TrEMBL record:
GO molecular function, one term: endonuclease activity
Keywords: DNA-binding, Endonuclease, Hydrolase, Nuclease, Restriction system
InterPro entries noted in UniProt: Restrct_endonuc_typeI_TRD_sf, Type-I_RE_S_subunit
Originating species: Eggerthella lenta
Entry's Gene Ontology BP terms: DNA restriction-modification system
UniProt-recorded name of the protein: Restriction endonuclease subunit S
Length: 395
């Protein structure tokens, strides 16, 4: 058991007696980022943890990127050429007493809770980072800690990558399952016929084709969100208005939605955002609100309208100035050809998809929970190593 001492820093706690506790500025120079101005292939980093575009300017790595605004708990170690915008600082070692890789691991443990305010963009200044205190073990021990963490974190990251791959395959399977069920039915032995519609392809012989305007009627009543709860139209369905939703002072400029209505966002940059309303409320004018007619199963068409096949067809019928921001209005939407299985088949398919997709979603949720736990374990391993709770000289 190593002799320890109080570090004087809450997140660090006790450290070995031969370790120093120093402000980051003692060994690190922190620089600011800026917006790039020229095109190129140099990765551009912010505080989010991944490059989000490329540019022509560059800085020479290696460096550790520290969050200035937005995501603060995701320092990144970058090598080679890079560029950082003003939401991230770039940090480089200025002394021979601290390894950059050890600093990277230590930076992931710095307590950022004091800077997590109620604002949408938590922030830390250069002064905050400069004066944050971290452990500084002897260099030989830093190297052993780095070796230990590289090995442990690589194993954890590999496990996470495999689980993300499983999630990706489950999501693709779910998409194909839905697309097949709502266009081909559930009986693999049924007689098929050509629908004559490219995006639909072959359908069961006893299925008919119809137009959206023959299955739904338009609801186009303007209301106030003071009288009707504002709702958001998302890829997961219709939900109470999200905090991130764009808001306006024009409270009367909303569309009425009644429970059971189908709502779809008409803009191509919101593709896949649609669903059945589970409550009365109001939505922004960019959405199309539809009333289902009798003798149809709304859940069947909800599944149909969530397919990539339909989304492509829906926005192909739209209009706009630029290709990636088209709007498909009711005038075009009502003429889109869709399938019309027998009513009993619609119910059967909807029940099947409700059950199967719920099981797939549950499997995805389990993998996501395991990934979250692995992330917490990874942080714990790093914290224990960089604060001396694990003796990596003996590990």
């Amino acid at each position: 058991m190593r002799e320890t001492k109080d570090s004087g820093v809450d997140w660090i706690g006790e450290v070995p007696v031969n370790w120093e506790i120093v402000p980051i500025k003692a060994d690190v120079s922190i620089g600011h980022g800026s917006d790039p101005t020229t095109p190129g292939d140099i990765p551009v980093w912010g505080s989010g943890g991944e490059p989000f575009k490329t540019c022509g300017e560059h800085k020479n790595g290696p460096a550790v990127l520290l969050g200035r605004k937005g995501t603060l708990d995701c320092p990144q170690l970058v090598t080679g050429l890079y560029w950082n915008v003003d939401t991230a600082f770039d940090a480089k070692i200025t002394s021979k007493k601290l390894s950059l890789k050890f600093f990277y691991y230590a930076a992931t443990c710095v307590d950022i809770k004091p800077y997590m305010t109620n604002t949408a963009k938590p922030s830390m200044t250069q002064f905050d980072w400069d004066n944050s205190r971290i452990p500084r073990p002897p260099l030989a021990e830093q190297r052993r800690i780095i070796s230990y963490l590289d090995e442990r974190c690589a194993a954890i990251d590999e496990d996470v990558a495999k689980r993300r791959d499983v999630i990706g395959k489950l999501k693709e399977y779910k998409k194909s399952l839905i697309a097949h069920a709502v266009t081909k039915g559930l009986d693999p032995n049924t007689e098929m016929k050509d629908s004559g519609v490219d995006w639909i392809g072959e359908v069961p012989a006893n299925w008919r084709l119809t137009k959206i305007g023959q299955v739904y009627d338009l609801r186009n009543t303007k209301v106030s969100d003071c009288d009707y709860e504002p709702l958001s139209v998302t890829m997961q369905g219709i939900v109470p208005q999200l905090d991130s939703a764009a808001k306006t002072d024009a409270h009367d400029d909303r569309k009425l939605v009644m429970e059971g209505d189908f709502v779809i966002n008409s803009r191509s940059d919101r593709r896949g955002s649609c669903g059945i309303a589970r409550q009365d409320g109001s939505v922004s004018l960019i959405n199309t609100v539809l009333i289902p007619r009798e003798h149809m199963e709304p859940r069947f068409y909800d599944w149909l309208f969530h397919t990539t096949l339909f989304a492509d067809e829906f926005y192909k019928n739209g209009h706009g100035i630029v290709d990636d921001l088209w709007t498909t209005k009711w005038a075009e939407m009502k003429g889109i050809t869709i399938v019309e299985p027998p009513f009993e088949t619609q119910i059967t398919v909807a029940n099947y998809l409700d059950e199967r997709c719920a099981a797939i979603d549950e499997a995805i949720a389990r993998q996501e929970q395991l990934i979250e736990k692995l992330g917490e374990y990874r942080k714990s391993v790093i914290h224990h190593a960089v604060t001396g709770k694990i003796d990596c000289m003996e590990a």
